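Appendix B, record 7
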Amino acid sequence: MQKVQVLNQSGKKTKEINAPKEIFSYPVKEHLLYEVVINYRTNQRHGTASTKTRSEVRGGGRKPWRQKGTGRARAGSNRSPLWRKGGIVFGPKPKTYYYSLPKKVKRNALKSALSMKFAENQLLVLEKLNFKEPKTKEGAKLLEMLSLDSALIVDDHENENLFLSLGNIPKVKAVDHNQVNVYDVLNYKWLVLTQRAFESLIERLK
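Structure tokens (predicted):
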């Protein structure tokens, strides 16, 4: 059974815990990572672009001129798409770009991402992360102690002081262990988990 070191907040080793091979030695499947990252980014799109059709543009209630006898082309509304300030034909409307992937694909992609971090020695497990006060200074001190320049930090959402302390620091993101996703794991150089988050993540992926 392979092991992972557990550190305290100062970066000193305190003990070792098991890192299951079925997760942390899982083969890195790049095609799954690609599919899941594309899915994540696509689902972030809001699709709020919108234009007005001739029925939605203001005005156009009166026929501009009589049907016959003027020598001009027939016109029923000054909000026709042919006219300046008229409606738009086949313009964009609010839509959703959301699509889902099978749970097994997302689970195996996350295993691949965790396995990659473990193999590259960019995964840290800390005993706990306790801040007395929600201060950015506390978060910066932690990063300096651990020599982290870009990190995804994972703990329980109940640890409010941690999330508030790291919220304003660039290239750092704190998430709940239930919200860990492939895109975030790959987007940051280091993956830092508390021991309880590490154990919860293993339970989730079994």
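Remarks on this record: Residues 103-119 form the longest helix (17 residues). Residues 60 and 77 are 5 Å apart (CA to CA).
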